[in-house]
Specification:
Blueprint (H helix, E strand, L loop, with lengths): L4 E11 L2 E12 L3 E5 L6 H9 L4 E10 L2 E2 L5 H6 L2 E4 L6 E5 H11 L10 H14 L10 E2 L5 H15 L3 E5 L7 H13 L6 E5 L13 E6 L2 E6 L1 H10 L2 H7 L15 E3 L5 E3 L3
Parallel strand pairs: 3-10, 3-11, 6-9, 9-10
Antiparallel strand pairs: 1-2, 1-4, 4-5, 7-8, 11-12, 13-14
Helix pairs in contact: 5-6
């Protein structure tokens, strides 16, 4: 089996007629962990949403391919079937659907034509073992998806889904927010356990702390809706010590943001009718 490859070329995208992504170039292969860092409002979360086909965003130009296939021509479910996965910054609540039912249906949907479904007993054993690995409460499997979950529970549940669905390329959008140190280590160990030539990941974060537990192979800085600097672990360490001002000075960037006002971010209604800002 060849390595999976997600390739993003000169990607431009907007939301509510405001251009957010202004030419993003990135290639993620199996066996690689990439991290995108940057201040608020620079387009990091927008990138994840566009890759997975969120309907609020309009692609203005560029290409996204997964193993050579045109991702922009795929529906959201087709992108997941192709091997893409997004651990969301703001997971939605889905009343009436239990975690275990959701995961079993999701695994079934990813089966190739003619591929035999995992037996119920094997599925339950795998789910129980993964829940135990992530130190999640055992009743999580029988609770409605994200309903009444704390912020930390939602984030661990996203990792549970990733472990169970075994994507080829995973995007983790601020998976560290809302987690204490113990939970960060658990999440880091879970991602590290998936490292292989058949799995690659993109970690989107504001802070270095998750990267204390998951050492990236490549570190990228996003400003003004594009990747402006790339490097290795040394780049992450310098950002941790000196912040982002030296990059702005080096590149002559005065304002790194593409969204000027946090309160002007577009909103959507979740399943309970509560407004939540779209991550950008």
């Amino acid at each position: 089996m060849s390595k999976p490859v997600l390739k993003i070329s000169d990607l431009r995208a907007s939301v509510e007629e405001k251009e957010i992504l202004k030419g993003v170039n990135l290639e993620i292969k199996g066996g690689e962990i990439h991290a995108i860092m940057g201040p608020n409002g620079t387009g990091k979360s927008t990138l994840s949403q566009v890759v997975m086909g969120h309907p609020s965003y309009e692609v203005l130009g560029g290409e996204i391919t997964m193993n050579g296939e045109d991702v922009l021509e795929m529906e959201v479910d087709e992108r997941a079937h192709a091997g893409l996965f997004l651990a969301m910054q703001y997971p939605s609540e889905i009343p009436g659907v239990t975690n275990s039912d959701f995961l079993r249906m999701s695994k079934r949907a990813r089966l190739e034509e003619g591929e035999k479904e995992q037996s119920l007993i094997k599925f339950i054993n795998e789910l129980d073992a993964t829940i135990d690995e992530l130190k999640i409460q055992p009743d999580m499997a029988h609770r409605y998806l994200n309903e009444g979950f704390s912020g930390g529970e939602k984030k661990r549940n996203e990792i549970l889904q990733m472990k169970m669905l075994k994507p080829e390329i995973a995007i983790l959008d601020e998976i560290d927010s809302g987690l204490d140190v113990d939970a960060l280590k658990i999440v880091g160990d879970a991602v590290n356990s998936m490292r292989s030539e058949e799995f690659g990941a993109l970690i989107i974060t504001h802070y270095q702390r998750i990267l204390d537990y998951i050492t990236p192979d490549f570190v990228h800085v996003m400003m003004q809706g594009r990747i402006v600097k790339s490097g290795g672990i040394e780049l992450m360490k310098k950002i941790d010590e000196e912040g982002y001002e030296w990059i702005k000075e080096e590149l002559g960037i005065e304002d790194e943001r593409v969204i000027q006002d946090e309160e002007k971010r577009p909103v959507r209604l979740d399943s309970c009718g509560t407004k939540e800002k779209l991550g950008l």
